Structures are given as structure tokens and as C-alpha cells.
Amino acid sequence: MGNQPGSRDTVGSHPPPPPAQEIPAQDVPVPPEELRRRQLGRMLINARAGDRRALDEIVDRLMPLVWNVARAQGLDQELAADVVQSSWVTLLEHLADIRSPEALASWLITVTRREARRVRDGRRRFEFGEPAAFDDLPDPAGDPEQRAADLDQYRCLWRNLRRLNARCQELLRIVAFVDRPDYTAVSKMLRMPRGGIGPTRGRCLTKLRSLLAADPTWSRP
Amino acid sequence: MNGPNNRTGSGPDGADPDGFDPADLDRGGLDRGHPSEANPGKADPDEPNPDSGDFDSGDFDFGSGDFEAGDADGDAEMDSGDYEVIDAIHALCQAADPVPRELYVRVRFALDLDGVERELAKICAGLDVSAVRGPEHTRTITFECGRLTIAITITPTGTNRHRVDGWLAPAGCLLVELRSAHLRSQIVSDDCGRFAFNDVGSGEMQLAALPTPGSVIDLDRAVVTQPIVL
């Protein structure tokens, strides 16, 4: 429909508008996990520069990972909370040493795991909830049918997870809270050696998948 | 199974690779330098050198292969079914064992000492936070703060009330402050380094030992413990 009279583009004295973006051209769209990772990288830079809000964002982002690392060591909730808190305080003291998002995840896992293991020594392992406990879970969605189906799946997965050895349970639980781009770094840090990590994780997953496949209550592929 | 497994060759035991062997895990991620001395990532030769001058975003290589270039095959074998199961585990843990909401508050509290105090105080992490705990139990926690050690015993005295007995090592008189959301009270430890706070409410609290003129314990700055929950 033609240019409006007086439209900026028709006024010769204006310089051409700058290119809208200076992001280097990319052939493929950036996957969401990669965006998350870049975001975390920026939070890390800002937190290192003393930005408290960025540190809080890191805490929000990685708290579930740290929590699950502690709980995967078999600590009860209270002990896990103590360990988690002390990991974050330790992180604050060592923030300057941590150079990249995957180093951050690895570092938190290492510190939390070591402290959890130290604290756990000689105590009995706690499991992270008995299947019966699922009945008490709050229902956020409010769709009873969907809810019942979810709970069935949880119970089924739970039951089969517990049939794996403790190491597989721990490994899978940690991996489940690691961002995908960090899998390699974290796996390496857990030092399942090359030809070891893949297969170790693979073995755990393969085992679990075959258990699930054989379980008629498991409805996912 | 994988045939002979060599990777435990450095250890005294030839553990079953599928078996859970804590020592094996210890040889794994945990022996790469104490985090208080070095960040575990540092041990990786492929890591950017942390001492290589100013830090800026250029230090990040956002490529996914930067830990070991050309070594992505550890993940190559993951297929969509693997990811589905991992996502399901994630959902299960989130549903059945979510991070307690108050833990976020607690961690922020712990990180939130104001800047000045952080400069001045050494924050000491608690050891033995694992001491038996529970409503009917006494807990003992030791805070190692450089040359000063603060040990406390927490005894429940009633519903949501506690008595905190503490002692300092080396022994000596110091001004000790108990801080919680509702309370800030100070007391001077006796010559043996003992102190006590009666009737402390439940919740977050931390102790500070303050430089005290005339004390045999010569603190150059305040010592603040990591917060704990009563």
C-alpha cells in the first residue's frame, strides 16, 4: 500500500537503520537447552562480578540439582538441607575459581556429594519416599484422572528404579537434573571413564528401560 | 557386559563395575583436589586456565564439546527413549521429593550476610551437622573457624524451644552473639570458653564471635557461623 507520506524511510537525510541484530548468523536454531546454558553463563559472569541477584538466580536454577545430589546419597531431608546449604556457602567462597556453566554444575555436584557422603557415613540410607507417600502429594493440576494416571506412572517408575543398584539409582537421579549440554562434562567429572561413563550410564538406562518395558503398568514407550 | 574391566586397576579392589562401591566413587569425582583448595574443573587440562588474566565472556566457550573436543560419543548413544526415561525420573523426583520451599529461604539467608559483614567475618561451615537430630534429640555441631572452634549442643526444652550450650576452643572470654529472625542476644563466654543461650525459638539462627578487648583469644575480625536451623 505504498509508503506513507513522511514515513521515515522516505526521508533521505536519515541514515539507514542499523542492522537489527548483531548476532552472528546461525544456520540452525539454538536449542532451548543451549539457551539455558548461555543464560547460566551470563548469570555466572554477573555473580562473579558481585551481582547478588545473579547469584540468587543461580541458586534458583541449580537448587534442584544440588538437592537431588544430596538426596541421592541417601540423606534424610534435614541432613540434605544442611548439606545443600553448606554447598552454597562454599560456592560463594569459591565463585572466582569457576569458569563455565558446566564447571559450575560439576563443582556443585562434587562438593555436595563429598559432604553428603561424609555426613552419611555410618548412617542408614533413607529412600526418597515410599510409594504410599504419593497419595499425599498435593494435586496442582486439579484434573483427577490425569492425576491418577501420573501417580500410577510415578509409582511404576519408582518401583523399577529401586530395582537398580544404588550406584545406578544415584547416577540416574543426578543425570536427571543436569542440563543436557552438560552431560558430557558432568559424566566426565563423575569419572565414569571414557568407554565407562557412556556404558555405565547406558547400562543403567538400558536396565531401567527393559524393566519398564516388562512392566504392564508402564504406559510410556 | 563389557568383558574385562581395567579401570579399577589403580585401586586395591577389583570391584564389580555394576556394584556400588563408595571407594570407587571416591576415586571418581571426589579425588580431584579439595574444593577449598581448587575447583574440580581446574584439574581438567582442557579447561580454560583460570589464571589467564581478565575474565570476560570470551572465557566461555559455549560449544558443547569444550571439555574434550571430539569426544562427544559418550552422549551419542542416548536416544529419544533414553531422554524420555530421564525426563520421567526428573518429573518423579520433582513430584515425590521436591526441594523444600524453605530451603530457598534458608540458603538466601546464608548467602545474604551483607557485604560489609562478609568482608569482616569469616563464615565457617559447620562440621558434624549430621549429629543425630530430631525433635527429641540433642544435636552437637562444630564450626571450624580458622584458629577458633565453636562447638554447640542444642537441646530441645519444649515445643519449639531450645537451649544452646556452646564452648570455644581455645578457651577464653569472647563476646558471642546469637542471631535469629526474632532475636539478637549477646553473652560473654566464661574463662573456659563456655556460653549458653536459654530458650531460643525454632528457626534459622547463627552465632557470631566478636573481637573482645582483653580476651586471651585475639580475633582480628568477627567470626560468623553458617546459619543452622533449630
| Beta-strand share of residues of chain B | 25-35%
- The strand count of chain B comes to 11
As a whole number of angstroms, the C-alpha radius of gyration of chain A is 23 Å
Note poorly predicted spans of chain B.
1-76
Q: What's the quaternary structure here?
A: heterodimer
Q: Can you tell me the overall shape of chain A?
A: globular
Tell me about the biggest sheet of chain A? none
Biggest chain pair interface: A-B, 97 and 84 residues
Structural class of chain A: mainly alpha
Q: What is the fold named in CATH at topology level of the largest domain in chain B?
A: Immunoglobulin-like
Tell me the number of strands of chain A.
Answer: 0
N-C termini distance of chain A: 53 Å
Which terms would index this structure?
heterodimer; A: 221 residues; mainly alpha; 8 helices; disordered N terminus; B: 230 residues; alpha+beta; Immunoglobulin-like; 6-stranded mixed beta sheet; 5-stranded antiparallel beta sheet; 5 helices; elongated
Describe the overall structure.
The complex is a heterodimer of chains A (221) and B (230). Chain A is mainly alpha-helical and 221 residues long. Chain A has one domain. Chain A has helices at residues 32-48, 52-72, 77-94, 101-120, 144-161, 166-175, 183-189, 197-213. In chain A, helix 2 crosses helix 3 (77-94) and helix 2 packs across helix 4. The longest helix of chain A is centred in the first third of the chain and has 21 residues, at 52-72. Chain A starts with 31 loop residues before the first helix and ends in an 8-residue tail after the last helix. The relative contact order of chain A is 0.10. By secondary structure, chain B is of the alpha+beta class. Chain B has two domains: 42-95, no CATH class; 115-229, Immunoglobulin-like, CATH 2.60.40. Chain B contains five helices and eleven strands; from the N terminus they run H-H-H-H-H-E-E-E-E-E-E-E-E-E-E-E. In chain B, strands 1, 6, 7, 9, 10 and 11 form a six-stranded mixed β-sheet that branches. Chain B is elongated. The relative contact order of chain B is 0.10. Chains A and B meet through helix 1, helix 2, helix 3, helix 4 and helix 5 of A and helix 1, helix 2, helix 3, helix 4 and strand 11 of B.
